[in-house]
Write the structure tokens for this entry.
Amino acid sequence: MGDRFPGLKYFAAAGFAMVLLVPIHLEAQSDLAREFAALPPYCKHTWGYRDTVPGGNDGPEISRWQTIIGEGMFIHMHHYCNGLRHRNNAKLVARSPAQRKQEWELSIPEFDYVLQNAPPNFVLLPEMLTMKGESLMALDRGTQAIPVLQRAIELKPDYWPPYIAISDYFKNAGDTAKAREWLQKGLSSSPNTKTLQNRLAELDGMKGKRAASHSTGAPAGKESPAAKAPVEKTRPEPQPNSEESGSK
């Protein structure tokens, strides 16, 4: 039979190869679905992704997101999703400092593209600016990041993530006073935000430990006896639903 149909063995081999590739294809689809589960729900419906991400090519959902985001802007949103993917890769996938740096760098032109094409009243501008600012911070480009984050705050003062990003920048630089100042600014605009309250409590805890260490002469980095004193334990912790925690 092989002699009568000389090409049959090649088709058979190709068919066998395709059978072997099916699990690989399904696994790749599964990985893509998991990756996009960590992105905003509209991402899988954007141009360039809707044909590759499972569930992306859904006409009613595409139309719904075009209405929500605006058809003129939705056509550009795959760039924003690209930037978010690079951010996630930098945080979760990259195995070396060089890879992380590359992923952070790749995210910035994607964010720039949507920022340049977004109307001035676009609802996602504060978030997009914050994403770009955080990428710049990750690349140690804080002096470039702060104006971007401040612009996000100007557009939406009660949007708290840019306050956290700026506070973390000053905290990492050793300027806890500035770090505290930005958390307090955030709380003045968004007083019930637990993330801001918790970060402020962390800074207060660091300050208390340093003060206790200096007063007892304990070496830096070691817990001093004063840090274990009952008076420190009686300090009230912020409570999620308490009026007191919301007013601070």
Summary: The mean pLDDT is 80.
